[in-house]
Design goal:
mainly alpha; Growth Hormone, Chain: A; 15 helices
């Protein structure tokens, strides 16, 4: 029997994405820059971030297998207790991470960044993997899963919007002026922003826990997949023997590396190469976020009429061309071309909802012959691959900043450094998008062949 979900269910389930996305935005866009401005050498900052994200990646499949094999006792089920534990931990760890302090030594800054990022990533694993696995637990209908990913993206975009706005709201509340470029003022702003977003992340994750509890209570009499309490690491080998799984994962990996470079170099590019101030940079993020919110439902609607894989290939290919042939040639201190790129790019980025939905379809295909629950393990492997890619991208961005001669603790950089950042931000990122597009194309071909009965996927 198909387990149906109401709009209220979908919105409640997706609420955690508001806080998680706000945290992700501030991590990807500001964290490397924050600790470099606090005085930490760029290579060490990138190394600390890569180590923490590496742990986060390794912990994801473990968390998935643990949640798959947790006995489902009571209405709360097997995944909700982990999600609730992460909700309690995420706000506290983010607030401490986002407050590096002033005049810290290299070792003190490195340890603070590494420790609290490890704690934060553990909390996000406790939330993220069970939250994703619940999609396949709550409904077996492909279109409803696509709807859930659409709701996740829309509310995630709302979280991005709040993440963009939070520094400005804190700036206003503290009667500060970040446009002046004072580093001490910026560090104080970031510390208070960490507290605000930390509270938001915990609150929205708790809302999701309450909503999912209500859904599970309503569905408690419906048959659920059997669960084994024994770990079976052969699941990992089985997953990577599936060409469909491998192609989709590789597509996400290369796109994630590009996004990590893009996010880590955004501030140095916009504020350095283009000469924007803090407020102008926030305008760009605001436009991008609003377009994401508007475009996500459009991609969901298009998926009802056209093939998801074909739409995804088109969107990623277009994003590749846009990234390669625009950013290195933008004029300094001119905002409108960047706004146009943000509108077009945001609409294309929103197509990620289709890629995520494709992955949930892959899980359903591979579950058909699985002896027990595997969705947690598969989503854990997916998140592990994404985070390893992100760790490599962030570490690479930090190493490149050092190689380009980027000076820590100052907003002024050499012209050659700014030029190198611009070319990395454009064609360098586009190269990873292009490879990702190729693997998504291969995955779509496998799905099409399966649909018309030409091949059997095991």
């Amino acid at each position: 029997m198909t387990r149906t979900l109401t709009r209220k269910d979908k919105a409640g389930y997706s609420s955690a994405e508001v806080g998680m996305s706000a945290v992700e935005l501030l991590l990807q866009v500001y964290l490397l820059d924050l600790y470099v401005l606090a005085g930490l050498e760029p290579f060490l900052a990138g190394l600390a971030l890569a180590i923490a994200i590496g742990w986060d990646a390794v912990s994801d499949p473990l968390m998935g297998m643990i949640s798959d094999r947790t006995p489902s006792k009571g209405v709360a089920g097997k995944r909700l207790p982990y999600l609730f534990s992460g909700a309690l931990l995420i706000g506290l760890s983010f607030a401490f991470l986002y407050s590096p302090g002033i005049d810290g030594s290299q070792s003190a800054l490195f340890v603070r960044l590494l420790f609290w990022y490890l704690v934060l990533n553990t909390a996000m694993t406790l939330i993220g993997v069970p939250h994703l696995a619940l999609i396949n637990d709550l409904t077996d209908d492909a279109q409803q899963r696509t709807d859930l990913f659409g709701w996740r993206l829309v509310l995630g975009a709302l979280g991005l919007l709040l993440g963009v706005a939070a520094p400005s709201l804190v700036d206003f509340a503290l009667e500060q002026d970040l446009a002046g470029g004072d580093i001490d003022t910026l560090l104080v702003n970031r510390a208070h922003t960490g507290i605000v977003i930390g509270v938001l992340a915990t609150s929205t994750a708790v809302i999701t826990c309450v909503s999912v509890f209500g859904i599970l209570r309503r569905q408690k009499n419906q048959e659920m997949r059997s669960t084994s309490n024994k770990f079976n690491f052969s699941i990992v080998a089985e997953a990577f023997r599936s060409p469909l799984f491998v192609y989709v994962i590789l597509g996400f990996v290369f796109i994630s590396i590009g996004r990590a470079f893009n996010g880590s170099l955004a501030l140095p590019f916009y504020k350095g190469a283009l000469g924007f101030d803090e407020n102008e940079f926030r305008i760009v993020l605001l436009v991008l976020t609003l377009v994401l919110m508007a475009a996500a439902p459009c991609w969901v609607m298009l998926s009802k009429r056209f093939d998801k894989g074909t739409l995804s290939v088109f969107a990623v290919a277009a994003l590749t061309l846009l990234t390669a042939f625009t950013y290195p040639f933008l004029p300094e201190r001119v905002l409108w071309p960047v706004i146009v790129i943000a509108v077009v790019g945001g609409a294309l980025i929103a197509s990620v909802v289709l890629l995520e939905s494709m992955f949930s379809d892959v899980i359903e295909i591979n579950r058909e012959n699985a002896p027990s629950e595997v969705s947690g393990a598969y989503y854990g492997l997916w998140r592990m691959a994404m985070k390893l890619a992100r760790a490599g991208g962030i570490a690479g961005a930090g190493a490149m900043l050092s190689f380009f001669g980027f000076k820590e603790g100052t907003l002024e950089q050499a012209a050659s450094t700014q030029t190198a950042i611009a070319w990395t931000f454009g064609p360098g990122v586009a190269l990873f998008f292009a490879v990702g597009c190729y693997f998504i194309l291969r995955a779509n071909r496998v799905l099409v062949l399966k649909t018309i009965g030409k091949i059997e996927i095991k």
